């Protein structure tokens, strides 16, 4: 009787081990990612915004640079830097051409209106025209959209009165977009009551929350 019990136990154990072996040898289940996330061609995780704007490039100054600084978009989708003006952006045309985006969003002007010249707006718009012309030449299939310069807080205006010229500068951008037959988006809807909470301590740059609101506003511009 004892011998029979031992045989039954050994048989049961053998069947269990075989089942485990077959289970481990089977296909692996895909690893799930957080809700709304996808993976790119290299298997790297993408946020919804990175996926939506994967074929876009944002050209601009330090305010635009916040998109990648705060990891809202990947660095490859942002071509910006502190102190960038429309004139300096002309130097990036080869890099932009190499990236070959479907959409280019341009947000320059925060530094342009501070440029030490007799008429900063006129000087900046002239360089904007050159930049747009080069993009049309190098990337004829690319959609171009101009974004308005973001306002600053009252305290920032007090520190730098030339920021009072932002509204006039933005009007110039709107007229330029109409003349060049390109896209134009007014960002003023983002700055309603309570929007001061979006600003960083200097009253000019922004916290990460601003950039998600920005990208939500621009979704309809992406083909």
Structure notes:
- This protein is of the alpha/beta class.
- The chain has a single domain (44-221), classed as 3-Layer(aba) Sandwich (Rossmann fold), CATH 3.40.50.
- It has 9 helices and 7 strands; from the N terminus they run αββαβαβααβαβααβα.
- The protein has helices spanning 2-25, 48-52, 62-69, 86-89, 93-99, 120-138, 154-159, 166-180, 208-218, and strands at 38-39, 45-46, 56-60, 78-80, 103-107, 143-147, 183-185.
- It has a 5-stranded parallel sheet, sandwiched between helices.
- β5 (103-107), α6 and β6 form a beta-alpha-beta unit.
- α6 runs parallel beside α8.
- The longest helix is centred in the first third of the chain and has 24 residues, at 2-25.
- The termini are far apart.
- Mean pLDDT is 85; it is low at 1-35.
- GO terms for molecular function: hydrolase activity.
- Residues 58-211 form the SGNH hydrolase-type esterase domain.
- Pfam families: Lipase_GDSL_2.
- Residues 1-18 form the signal peptide.
- InterPro entries: Ester_Hydrolysis_Enzymes, SGNH_hydro, SGNH_hydro_sf.
Attribute tags:
single chain; 223 residues; alpha/beta; Rossmann fold; 5-stranded parallel beta sheet; 9 helices; globular
The parts where pLDDT drops under 50 for at least 5 residues are 1-35
Number of individual domains: 1
Record the strand order, biggest sheet.
Answer: 4-3-5-6-7
Q: Spell out the helices and strands N to C.
A: HEEHEHEHHEHEHHEH
First-residue to last-residue Cα separation: 77 Å
Examine the secondary-structure arrangement and name the CATH architecture. 3-Layer(aba) Sandwich
The chain-level mean pLDDT equals 85
Kindly identify the CATH topology: Rossmann fold
Oligomer: single chain
How helical, in percent, are the residues? 40-55%
Number of helices: 9
Structural class: alpha/beta
Per CATH, the class reads Alpha Beta
**CATH H-level name... which superfamily?**
SGNH hydrolase
- Form type: globular
GO molecular function, one term: hydrolase activity
Keywords: Hydrolase, Signal
Protein name: SGNH/GDSL hydrolase family protein
Pfam families: Lipase_GDSL_2 (PF13472)
